[in-house]
Amino acid sequence: MEITLSELAKLIGGEVSGDPSVVITGVAGIREARPGDVTFLADPRYSRFLETTKASAVIAPPNAGRSKKPLIICENPYLSFVKAVEYFFPNRDSYPRTIHPSAVIASSANIGKNVAIGACAVIEEHVKIGDNTVVLAGTYIGKRTTVGSDCLIYPNVTIREEIKIGDRVIIHSGAVIGSDGFGFVKDGEVYRKIPQVGNVVVEDDVEIGANVTIDRATTGTTLVGRGTKIDNLVQIGHNVVIRENCIIVAQVGIGGSTEVGSGATIAGQAGIVGHVKIGEGAIVAAQAGVVGDVTPGGMVSGYPARDHKQAKKIYASLQKLPDLLKRVADLAERVAKLEKGQKV
Q: Reading across the β-sheet that carries 247-248, which strands appear in turn?
């Protein structure tokens, strides 16, 4: 596939600086690009690669400066690069719209138009699957679950009973939606399981990474709001409510009955106790341990998580702790000598 730089600029919404007749045949990152590729520069930290990259052209922001390479100037280089990738790989997620003969589908299941179901998938009683959805090999969908239209469910996903999945949802391999919440009550010397009779609702345009677990509610609903994106290896407890357009990065754990406000970001390996509120637009930094509410628009880090500016001061102070301890020991020694009437 070939396209001139000027044609590509029109396609992705940018303006050419340099030779518009350069032919582009592919896309790549700025360090691994080869002649014929277009790459992008969105982060100023990588500007040093602008002249050393072997790419034939670079998608860059207006403040990129002068370059020997032809540029496509865009307000949002990353988004424009995504459009270029979509142009060169239009059928990456294209699957034959057939039902494999080894799939087990209950007679009461309602399968929409143009649906693909892979080998050894199991579709239980009264499941409803919307038009144009793809369910790949080894996936299990439990009784009375609804999956919307235009979804992509990768191999070996488990969606248990009475779950509601919206439209255009992507679920990656190994994810388990609707596993039992971790609920037990002590009965003498043993723990008695609390029945988990609620469900999970995943709204439209959500993406769920590989090996994510989302527990069903004890009663009521565990909710993942519209447009939220969840990275791999995330645990979401029972009755958690995640509002619209949140970002949850890998290895996050969210305790039961926590509410995450719209537009919040929870960075990698952060842990959040149950029954707290993360405000709209808040940021929980990587490896933070959240034990209380986070205000809307706030940013917290550390353990226990506190305001990020305060946390940075504490971290800076800790760097000085060895010297401070030595000074305290020296002062204690001097005081001891003074108390004994010795010279110091």
A: 116-117, 134-135, 152-153, 170-171, 207-208, 229-230, 247-248, 265-266, 283-284, 299-301, 306-307
**9 in Cβ contact with 20 (< 8 Å):** yes
Is residue 290 exposed (0-12), middle (13-18) or buried (19+ Cβ within 10 Å)? buried
pLDDT exceeds cutoff 90 at 90 = no
128 plus 234 within the same structural domain: yes
126 vs 105: CA distance, rounded Å: 10
The two three-digit tokens of residue 8, written as one number:
């590509």
**List of residues 6+ apart from 62 with CB closer than 8 A:** 73, 75
CB 184 within 8 A of CB 147: no
CA–CA dist 79, 85 (Å, integer): 10
Q: Residue 98: inside a domain, yes or no?
A: no
Asked, as a colleague might, if the bond just before 322 is cis with ω within 30 of 0, I would say no
Tell me: do 37 and 150 sit in the same domain: no
Catalytically annotated residue among 100, 126, 172, 238: 238
pTM over 0.70: yes
Higher pLDDT, 71 or 48: 71
Return left, alpha or beta for 11; rule: phi > 0 is left, psi -120 to 50 is alpha, else beta: alpha
Query: Are residues 139 and 207 located together in one domain of the fold?
Result: yes
| Helix 321-339 × helix 308-319 angle, to 10° | 60
Reply yes or no on whether 275 is catalytic: no
55 domain-assigned: yes
Q: How do residues 145-199 score in pLDDT, each as one tens digit?
A: 999 999 999 999 999 999 999 999 999 999 999 999 999 999 999 999 999 999 9
